[in-house]
Amino acid sequence: MNQSSNGRIYDCIVVGGGPAGLTAAIYLARYHLSVLVFDDQASRAASIPVSHNHAGFPNGVSGEELLARMRTQAERYGAYVRYCQITELRKRGSLIEAMSPIGHWRAKTVLLATGVINRRPQMPAAVHDDALARGLLRYCPVCDGFEVTDKTVGVIGVGTRAFQEAIFLRSYTRHLTIISCEDRPHLNETQISELQEIGVKLERGPVSSIEIAGDLLVLNTPDHRLFFASVYPALGSDVRSDLASRLGARLSREGCVSVDAHQRTTVSGLYAAGDVVQGLDQISRAMGQAGVAATAIRNDLCEQVLRVR
Fold first, then answer.
1. Range of the domain at 214
2. What's residue 307's pLDDT?
3. Confidence of residue 306 (pLDDT cuts 50, 70, 90)
4. In this protein, which residues make up the domain named FAD/NAD(P)-binding (predicted)?
5. Residue 201 within any structural domain of the chain
6. Is the pTM above the cut of 0.85?
7. Are residues 48 and 74 located together in one domain of the fold?
């Protein structure tokens, strides 16, 4: 069924229902602006079993609970949330039109908060999700490196990305191994020497299978059956910046949306915040950017009204 806006023009459409998008919606609604949030339920935050580094939750908070609280807060102030994916953005004069399989909506501004998608290791989805929920598989050492203190930890990956992740984690534990996801680790002699010096082991890949055994994650390689308390896939992520790119917004070399100090993109009326923008992928940073973006949207819209007068 088509659910178009029937001629209504929103002050802002927020694409993304993660911490950045929902923070922006709260700000925008409290600025007395009309806000429509599109949530395709793909936020990485939803997969966080429990976060202990988000301020204000001394006993930790799950990603699902945090998002639910934020949605309730945004809706309390008048923001609308729809659960569907925006597939295209189009410029319509001074407006931007958001297209989805079930309809289309128009707004004076659009805030992109579409985030990124983690690249997963090869393993059954059910095993992956169970391991993630139990802390056997982790994606963010900045978020939860503390939780693996002095534990046996594996890093799956190759090259500089795996090297840097292992170096970061080494400050938490001495029991650290890089497992190549290919037949060789693609590390240079300097990197190998540095890893050996600090006691990081190297295991030849590829990883043929991953399974759970009790409270450990088991990686099977050509040479060994390896047991870890936690494993970090250092495989990178894919930035969800296609909507911005197709609209003509400038991207960084890494594919992130380029923004100014107020989160404005190079396309008039289009803003971006959160992990889709280059920087440290942290909830606190995403929320801070969202507050900046929402305030810029409010001020830019007010300036437009004054110019018309």
1. 120-233
2. 67
3. low
4. 10-290
5. yes
6. yes
7. yes
- Sign of the C-alpha dihedral, residues 160, 166, 170, 174? negative
Q: How far apart are CA 290 and CA 12, in angstroms?
A: 13
Condensed to tens digits (0 to 9), the pLDDT of residues 170-214 reads 999 999 999 998 888 899 999 999 999 999 999 999 999 999 999
**Omega cis (within 30) before 206:** yes
Task: Confirm whether 1 is domain-assigned.
Answer: no
DSSP result, the chain: -----TT-EEEEEEE--SHHHHHHHHHHHHTT--EEEE--S--GGGG-S-BSSSTT-TT-B-HHHHHHHHHHHHHHTT-EEE-S---EEEEETTEEEEEETTEEEEEEEEEE---EEEPPPSS-HHHHHHHHHTTSB-S-HHHHGGGGTTS-EEEE--HHHHHHHHHHHTTT-S-EEEE-SSSS----HHHHHHHHHTT-EEE-----EEEEETTEEEEE-SS-EEEESEEEE---EEE--HHHHHHT--B-TTSPBP--TTSB-SSTTEEE-GGGSSS---HHHHHHHHHHHHHHHHHHHHHHHHHH-
Of 176, 174, 150, give the one whose Cα is nearest residue 163: 176
243 and 111 in a single domain? The answer is yes
